[in-house]
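Subject: complex prediction, re-run

Hi both,

The earlier run crashed halfway through, so I resubmitted it with identical inputs.
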Amino acid sequence: MDRIPILRMGKFLLVTIQIDLYDRLATNLETDLVYMVNKTGARGVLIDISALSIVDSFMGRILGNIGSMARIMDAETVVVGMQPAVAITLVELGLELKGVHTALNVEKGMELLQKKINGLDDEEDEIAANEDSTD
Amino acid sequence: MKQDISKLLQKKKKSILEDWMHLQLADAGLREDLMSNDELREQSAELLDSLLKGINDKTINDFNSDEFAPVYEILSGISISRARQGFSPRETGIFVFSLKDALLKTIVTELSNDQGALLETIVSVNKLLDNLGIVTFETFIKGREEVILRQTDEIAEISTPVIQVWDGILALPIIGTLDSARTQVVMENLLQHIVETGSTIAILDISGVPAVDSLVAQHIIKTVAATRLMGAECIISGIRPEIAQTVVHLGIDLSNIVTKASLASALKHAFAMLRLDVKRIQKEKEK
Amino acid sequence: MKIEKEQDVVPFRNRVKEYAVRIGMSVVNQTKLITAASELVRNMLKYANGGNTIIEVISEGRNSGIRLIFQDKGPGIKDIDLAMKDGFSTGKSLGLGLPGAKRLVNEFEIKSSVGEGTTVSIIKWKNG
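This time it finished cleanly. Structure:
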């Protein structure tokens, strides 16, 4: 059975998506992640999509779902490493990734998660981050 | 009595080439600076060769015949390369039309005893060569157009420079009108640089944009959105008073975007976001 | 190329990509085209249980591009104008599929009749 491996690193969960996902794989990932957040009590989820050459509305929705689901379970989600072409396409498509934060790379994403869960002041939290306007 | 034109011309190929070369070299506009005589001779011989191969009784009146495909190909190649090298249309035209003179000269001498055949052949050869002339100009212009297109691309490339103003801060001054094609280039360029430099803040300076209408604003908002998706923040600077006025009059909502009046204040904001402090002692250029 | 199950989507996207690379399309345009294709294929699977796709390289003057045609024999779309609106969906999706795909390509044409099926044809030019 095909599954995307989820790594646990301290209080965080780490997912690296290495292949182009077909739908079942993506929905599996969504389910698995939510269960893992529950089981491990993780405070942050980091999803690396740098290898993804395509993010369509379905995939975008999955990412948004993961973010929102994790949020109500008290975990923040950061999507890192989006390709420029993917970002341009998403904007053109009219898709904003609501509910997830974004960062340039894994390192910056980790930093961001640390800051988020250490509960720094919201105002100072803009650093290196894409602030969710709904915040 | 009808002579076989192709055989006749084939036989006289050498003298035709000599005549042709002679005519070309005699022209005052000869560009020895752009092309050596040997090269010219080579080109001429190649073209003549393929032309004479293509000519026979059937094809001489049908210049769309497949037999001439290689001729057109060679001729196109020559004219395009001449366009790129900077030959003038006149110089390129002479190349073909002097061939006509050379051919006709041979035909007149060879067929002088048969007026009917002479006339017919001259008309045919004329038509054929005129057609070659048209092809020459068409491809010559095409070659020029390619040069122009390349320059357009280059201008588009140059006109969107991405500058790294600080570790982690990029600036992109936009000068000139922003249309959707340009926005795409700007966006691509900016995002690529963000990835390469790992910058987290991008400043888009629009003080050089003559007018901001709702379409331009849309493009700017898109660029900001894409930057955010990448995980970087985008500041718009260079909002001139006129721009502020039109933006408000048009009812464009820029409230989700950090906007600053000048590049300097945008930079200050960026420093604050990165928690950098600029002190006088450090002799920073920006203040 | 036939699309019957969701596992067909990834190979289809790869095929589209191959063609796009062959005509030298830029990465951004490639991504836009493939994303649009992905949206349309997904629609086809979801509402019509699959269908047929055609990939072809076209050229007009010096510009070349790729045309993708998606044909299905599904229920068809009742109100195309409504379906082309952002945020409209009869399914549970975001409703970005059709209008989003249209924004990503240069030319977009949709024909549909209820009960007979839907045909969508898109063109993405190499430069544009």
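Helices of chain A lie at 23-40, 57-72, 84-93, 106-117.

- K.
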